[in-house]
Amino acid sequence: MVRATRILILFVALSLISILGPFIAPYDPFQVSGNPYQQPSWSHILGTDGLGRDIFSQLIVGSRITLTISITAAAISLAIGLFLGLVSSLRGLLSQAVSSLIDSFIVVPPLIIMIFIASIMGPSIVSTIVSISLSYWPQIAKTIRAEALSILERQYVEAARAVGAGIKWIFRKHVIPNMGHVILANLAYAVGIAMVSESIVSFLGLGDQRFFSWGMIFYYAFIQGAIYYGLWLWILSPALVISITAYILFETSRDIIKRA
Amino acid sequence: MVFLNTLLRRVLIALLTYVVVNLFIFTVPRLMPGNYVDYIASSRFLPQQAVMELYERFGLNEPFHVQLARYITNVMFSPKPNFGYSYSFYPYEAWDVIQIYLPWTVLLLSVATIATFILGTLLGFIAAYTKDSILDRLIVGFGIYTLSTPYFILALIILAIFSQYLGLFPAGGAYSASAPQSGLPFIQNILWHLFLPVMAIAIGTSGQFVILTREIIVSNMSEDFYRTAMALGLRRTRILIEYALRPGILPLITLFGIRFGTMMSGALLTEIIFSYPGLGYILYQAILSKDFPLLQALFYMISFMIIATSLILDILYMILDPRIRRG
Q1: Fewer CB atoms near the end CB (10 Å): N or C, chain A?
Q2: pTM > 0.90
Q3: Cα(B201)–Cα(A239) distance, rounded to whole angstroms?
Q4: How far apart are CA B284 and CA A119, in angstroms?
Q5: Sign of the four-CA dihedral B274, B275, B281, B287
Q6: Is the pLDDT of residue A1 over 60?
Q7: How many domains does chain B have?
Q8: Domain around B143
Q9: Which ipTM did the prediction report?
Q10: Which of A103, A105, A108 is the best mutation test for B, with the most CBs of B within 10 A?
């Protein structure tokens, strides 16, 4: 229960920040509000970037883009993974084919697929979402398939089969309702991994330059020489926000699986 | 017999994976709106006639199945896959560019692999040895935390501390141009440049090994053979290694096969940060200059390496696992 509360607090806090972003940010993140490369001070908590824009405001406003990208990408890859995972747990030629497709794609590292698609599509928010969601579905499909197969072997499913239930009925009544926790765990995992992936795509210069996301702030910090100027908070704050959020999501995902 | 059957099935799966990956490389660029020629044409303001000429030369106005057939003969089942000229390394073909940079990645990856394995098993062992203590929690927490941190952040922090502030190690490259290019000093120089990237990869990717090693040992602690060994009065370290860790070598090898791809990605990103002249470095160049032939060749090469490695690891697993070996 404690863990559930934690994730709820995180979720509410993040959504509040991302919805209210532009209103609670002390400055307009796109406007110059001081000298460039300022060290952190009371007027600029995390300092300013190479153009003199407030980094703290960028972080607050950027949360909206980051959340939009990671939740959308996670939802899409979960939908693909869920559908293909369920199809591959059936019997027959089609499910065999889908199974082999999943097994083939799981070998290729998601990062490589992501870079390939993102660089072909060019930098935009849509390309970031598409590239992330097309790279993580095999992992999700694989866990979904394993779970569906284990449910299909349980006694109550056998009993249902014995009295003549069709496969569709079994999936609707037994398999899908019993997978709630796996789906939830995968969703939490996927949102976390999408957040980390967004920062990787942005770091490689494939992010949308018209917006601030946490990954893009990190990218700007890197290319504008934050290390060289000794502006540690500039480069560490987006990194920490990403990894702490992802950490909580991964822990939650592990917890849901362990509890069930 | 069972062994041969399993082996044959595994090889078939690897072949199938190879074909699917190749189809992916072939199809994805063709699904996207526009193609290389359109991209070149739009950025260089080429006249219509030149665009038509380029279309003709690259065979892009031919029907889909003709292009696919050509891809199959020239790339998929060719000893020297032909991806065409690289844009950013122009007089070279994409495949030749990869051959030049590949050895450094192989070197980095093999050293990093050994380091990750040792670090992961060692930390997992310490965590299991001091189970439920603060140290154990710290190690497990660190393991999960590294899983949720983008690889390059760690690499950047390491670069900043050890190279920029302490000045102990070089900031980039594979060797110093001013140093002697042969003999022992050269090898020393290479190792000196190798240290920080290897450290970044090992710390960044060992998390799952730590957690798995710990879980294997802890779960074996409740087995009968462990209790018997305890009753015999053997030393605790010896029991943990011989009775609790050794049965877990097989799952560790499997995890290794699964994590090899992650390590590969980690190596690519780390190479970018440390400007290490391997595949990651040219991957970054290819992204920056929209060098599609090189991107495709890289995707091909990386997938090929991973498919081959996981096949070899699985065969190794079959040989090591008596249940499969003896049938």
Answers
A1: N
A2: no
A3: 17
A4: 10
A5: positive
A6: no
A7: 2
A8: 98-325
A9: 0.82
A10: A108
